[in-house]
Amino acid sequence: MNKELTKNFASGHSACAGCAFPTIVRTILGESPDPVVISNATGCLEVTSTLYPYSAWKTPYIHSAFENASATISGVERAHKILSKKGKAAKKIKFVVFGGDGSTYDIGLQSLSGALERGHDFLYVVYDNGGYMNTGNQRSSATPYGAATETTPTGKESFGKVEMRKNMMEIVNAHHIKYAAQANVAYLSDLKKKAKKAFETDGPVFLSVFSPCTNNWKFPTSQYVNIAKLATETNFWPLYEIEDGKYKINWATEKPKELEEFLKTQGRFKHLFSEKNAPVLAEMKKIVKDEWQSLVNKTEE
Fold first, then answer.
1. Is the peptide bond before 256 cis (omega within 30 degrees of 0)?
2. Scanning 78, 89, 125, 262, which has its CA 20 to 30 A from the CA of 285?
């Protein structure tokens, strides 16, 4: 493997074949011109990259719990700032948090909100795989409406998750930070540009990256890029950024593919194609259409 690609995150970790986050981590960190310090919440990335006594990280790295990765990086960033003022830490450093759904949407939302509000100079990256994958595919508030998980199973009495997924980008934007962006592992040039812009922006910044999970979405390991691409081509996962409160869509087409093309690639949605669940599929399509139109309206404003 190219040494430049692995200068921050080595090969030899134990992530599943077909997992997206090793590519996400390397792509993002590769855009930092400065040394980086990582705070990593509990989750798939943490457990597969830090099997004691080994580590895939070639940077200073701190493992925090689900709920406090942002609080941890806040303390490290502030300590470095004070030491720099005293002339004891001259190097410019980029501080980065990596977290999954649990540490971002749910358990760690409070500490993330606090760090954003206080204005710490750090980049928060969520690799969004729509569930608690490290512990066996329980639903999170990032899980899409209609998806089957271990805690929202399908059957005679249920069609999967009944709630809409949380709009994390809007929650982050409500903190009035300078830059937030939604990206996708299938569009690496777009992810690189957004990572570069994030590292060039002072203060807190946020990247939400689509990260397919082969184990729990139930698809072949070779298909994660194709499935991620379909998520954007169907408007399920738009690529856009919010800079100083202004919205910009980075990829669009006049003829998006039908949502079914994305859904049919994954076992977690196979129940939606039964006659009984036709209304659920129709509702899911309406949700995607309405959210896309809402985003378009924001860019026009």
1. no
2. 125
